[in-house]
Write a structure and sequence with these properties.
The chain has 208 residues and is α+β, with helices and mostly antiparallel strands. The protein is 29% helix and 35% strand. The chain has one domain: Regulatory factor, effector binding domain (Multidrug-efflux Transporter 1 Regulator Bmrr, Chain A), CATH 3.20.80.10. The longest helix has 32 residues.
């Protein structure tokens, strides 16, 4: 009986190890194969990176939940557009609230705010040349070159973790006399199946 229990435990441990290795492998694979929005780094200050981004094009929507917004945009890049084109996924995915009350250097979110999400399109697309969405709730927008202040963090992007890193971002900007403009937003780089310790998230805000 003891021998059978030992064999069962060893089998369970082996299976768990194999699944864990596959999970980590998937996270590494998606990180290597997903295109990233290009940028140049201008400065590092106390855990915050100041980046310069070129002109970019996004597919954007606003929904009652993060899941609804993601699925709507995912359908668009999977071919739910007038030309039926499939578009490569590009990291990061930008999320924020439609309504955010700003009191510099602290930002607070309205509890009744809706979820705003944007997928960055590959660099070869322009706002005029991108496939036209079938869903009227999806829009294609051009974002001019800009400078962002970004604070990275890992693990799941829970409300508490986002709020903490947002506070630290604004504290750092205030301490270094850097002036934010507009609303802060969340950047996510990984798909939902990436292990939490491998996830890359960022709180970002545009600078004057």
């Amino acid at each position: 009986m003891a021998r059978n229990i030992t064999k069962s435990a060893a089998l369970a441990l082996g299976t768990a190890a194999a699944l864990g290795a596959a999970w980590v492998g998937w996270g590494a694979y998606t990180r290597r194969t997903t295109d990233r929005v290009p940028y140049t780094t201008a400065l590092h200050v106390d855990g915050v990176e100041i980046r310069r981004y070129p002109d970019t094009v996004v597919a954007k929507t606003t929904a009652d939940s993060q899941g609804e917004a993601f699925q709507r945009l995912f359908r668009y890049i999977q071919g739910n557009n007038r030309s039926r084109d499939e578009i490569e996924m590009t990291a990061p995915v930008s999320t924020g609230r439609e309504k955010i009350a700003m009191t510099a250097p602290v930002a607070s979110e309205s509890s009744d705010g809706r979820m705003e999400m944007a997928f960055f399109l590959p660099g070869e697309y322009t706002a005029e040349g991108a496939p036209e969405p079938e869903d009227e709730a999806v829009t294609i927008e051009s974002i001019e070159a800009r400078t962002l202040a970004v604070r990275p963090f890992s693990w799941y992007a829970t409300d508490a973790r986002v709020a903490d890193n947002r506070r630290r971002l604004f504290d750092t900007l205030s301490a270094h006399n850097l002036t934010p403009t507009g609303d802060p937003f969340l950047l996510r780089y990984d798909d939902p199946w990436t292990p939490p310790f491998m996830r890359r998230n960022e709180i970002a805000v545009e600078l004057e």
